[in-house]
Amino acid sequence: TTPAPVTVIGLGPMGRAMAGAFLDRGHPVTVWNRTPSRADALVERGARLAAGAEEALSAAELIVVSLTDQEALYALLGGVDPAALKGRVLVNLSSDTPDRAREAAAWVAERGATQLTGGVLTPPSGIGDPASTTLYSGPRAAFDAHRATLEVLTGADHRGEDPGLAALLYQLNMVMFWTALSGYWQAIALAGAHGLTASDIRPLAVEALDLRQFVEFYTPRVDAGDHRGDVDRLAMGAASTEHVLHTVADAGVDTALPAAVAALFRRGVEAGHAADSSSSLVEVLGKPAA
Ligand code: NDP
């Protein structure tokens, strides 16, 4: 089958990688971006730069959108003739909150088009690699109809009909990613205060950031509401997080992040979980701090 035409709106690092992947696979690619010069290298490779948003929308049934957030979608397409979107499948890969993804889906539906929301779980370097993953949600039929084209970008996993679901799963990924990565930056800053480099702590970091065994161990327990303190106790964790905080403070390094972690563990102890597992923090975190 001939590769289907695709339009890519939004040419940040992600959108450029996506347009490039479609070109590599022989798809006719139309691109459109607020700053047109970002299309230059793609045009050299055979992409067509649309003269305006309407032209971009009319060039393909499948419209891949990769913008900073959903506001950018309204900024770019809010002014176009609503009929220009009619019948299109808009693959919305801009990350934002689940509510904003649902609002965008309704906005798209009002214009006679269908939104598939996507959460891309890879940086631009992983675009074009079938081993990378994008989680999709929205109408299954639209996903099935365009699956082969979407698989040019990454592996494609449809998780459900709710247009907010892919955004939620993306944010679940990010809350873990940013929090763990911040811990890594914190460790490098602390190491640096002691004359150690990122290279010096590389083997330690690789081990510390691999939390797989904890995930596997705690998953069934947490789902069963079992926060038994047989292998770890929150009181021990609270003491440990205080040691981290003091080590960081003694080194003259910023303490905001370890102070927040130590405060969280202290709240758990105050809530009566001292003898429970640190997994009992799931209960503490389940509601806003007083
Ligand atoms: P960028 O934030 O760099 O995307 C910028 C794009 O959004 C550009 O096309 C920019 O236009 C456009 N844009 C932003 N604000 C507006 C606006 N108000 N009006 C019109 N256009 C606007 O992000 P990336 O390319 O890195 O990523 C795109 C999406 O993919 C983001 O939502 C990101 O969270 C998500 N993502 C990114 C990953 C990554 O590693 N980069 C990984 C996984 C997901 P202009 O060029 O004119 O500035």
UniProtKB/TrEMBL annotation:
<comment type="similarity">
    <text>Belongs to the HIBADH-related family.</text>
</comment>
<feature type="domain" description="NADPH-dependent reductive aminase-like C-terminal">
    <location>
        <begin position="162"/>
        <end position="286"/>
    </location>
</feature>
<keyword id="KW-0560">Oxidoreductase</keyword>
<dbReference type="InterPro" id="IPR008927">
    <property type="entry name" value="6-PGluconate_DH-like_C_sf"/>
</dbReference>
<feature type="domain" description="6-phosphogluconate dehydrogenase NADP-binding">
    <location>
        <begin position="6"/>
        <end position="153"/>
    </location>
</feature>
<dbReference type="InterPro" id="IPR013328">
    <property type="entry name" value="6PGD_dom2"/>
</dbReference>
<dbReference type="InterPro" id="IPR006115">
    <property type="entry name" value="6PGDH_NADP-bd"/>
</dbReference>
<dbReference type="GO" id="GO:0050661">
    <property type="term" value="F:NADP binding"/>
</dbReference>
<dbReference type="InterPro" id="IPR051265">
    <property type="entry name" value="HIBADH-related_NP60_sf"/>
</dbReference>
<protein>
    <submittedName>
        <fullName>6-phosphogluconate dehydrogenase</fullName>
    </submittedName>
</protein>
<dbReference type="InterPro" id="IPR036291">
    <property type="entry name" value="NAD(P)-bd_dom_sf"/>
</dbReference>
<dbReference type="InterPro" id="IPR048666">
    <property type="entry name" value="RedAm-like_C"/>
</dbReference>
<dbReference type="InterPro" id="IPR015815">
    <property type="entry name" value="HIBADH-related"/>
</dbReference>
<dbReference type="GO" id="GO:0016491">
    <property type="term" value="F:oxidoreductase activity"/>
</dbReference>
<dbReference type="Pfam" id="PF03446">
    <property type="entry name" value="NAD_binding_2"/>
</dbReference>
<dbReference type="Pfam" id="PF21761">
    <property type="entry name" value="RedAm-like_C"/>
</dbReference>
